[in-house]
């Protein structure tokens, strides 16, 4: 992606070039757009930065206990029940 930025390519040119090399599912246009915007703002760090997490409304022990009781819960149902995102709920399944 950085190479595409340095070449001066726009979002669609970057997506097309990356898809030609890595396959159609390699990157979305939105991902290209976000990265190119970061580069334009001078953000060139590739190091994962810590992110603030929204505090959970319920303790980890309660979540794990509910899932042990009802093994048919999906991540979507669990997330809805506890007010958390479904990907966060996957941590407990």
From TrEMBL:
<dbReference type="GO" id="GO:0003697">
    <property type="term" value="F:single-stranded DNA binding"/>
</dbReference>
<dbReference type="GO" id="GO:0042800">
    <property type="term" value="F:histone H3K4 methyltransferase activity"/>
</dbReference>
<dbReference type="GO" id="GO:0003690">
    <property type="term" value="F:double-stranded DNA binding"/>
</dbReference>
<dbReference type="GO" id="GO:0044547">
    <property type="term" value="F:DNA topoisomerase binding"/>
</dbReference>
<feature type="domain" description="Mos1 transposase HTH">
    <location>
        <begin position="1"/>
        <end position="41"/>
    </location>
</feature>
<dbReference type="GO" id="GO:0046975">
    <property type="term" value="F:histone H3K36 methyltransferase activity"/>
</dbReference>
<dbReference type="GO" id="GO:0000014">
    <property type="term" value="F:single-stranded DNA endodeoxyribonuclease activity"/>
</dbReference>
<dbReference type="InterPro" id="IPR052709">
    <property type="entry name" value="Transposase-MT_Hybrid"/>
</dbReference>
<dbReference type="GO" id="GO:0006303">
    <property type="term" value="P:double-strand break repair via nonhomologous end joining"/>
</dbReference>
<dbReference type="GO" id="GO:0000729">
    <property type="term" value="P:DNA double-strand break processing"/>
</dbReference>
<protein>
    <recommendedName>
        <fullName>Mos1 transposase HTH domain-containing protein</fullName>
    </recommendedName>
</protein>
<dbReference type="Pfam" id="PF17906">
    <property type="entry name" value="HTH_48"/>
</dbReference>
<dbReference type="GO" id="GO:0044774">
    <property type="term" value="P:mitotic DNA integrity checkpoint signaling"/>
</dbReference>
<dbReference type="GO" id="GO:0000793">
    <property type="term" value="C:condensed chromosome"/>
</dbReference>
<dbReference type="GO" id="GO:0015074">
    <property type="term" value="P:DNA integration"/>
</dbReference>
<dbReference type="GO" id="GO:0005634">
    <property type="term" value="C:nucleus"/>
</dbReference>
<dbReference type="InterPro" id="IPR041426">
    <property type="entry name" value="Mos1_HTH"/>
</dbReference>
<dbReference type="GO" id="GO:0035861">
    <property type="term" value="C:site of double-strand break"/>
</dbReference>
<dbReference type="GO" id="GO:0031297">
    <property type="term" value="P:replication fork processing"/>
</dbReference>
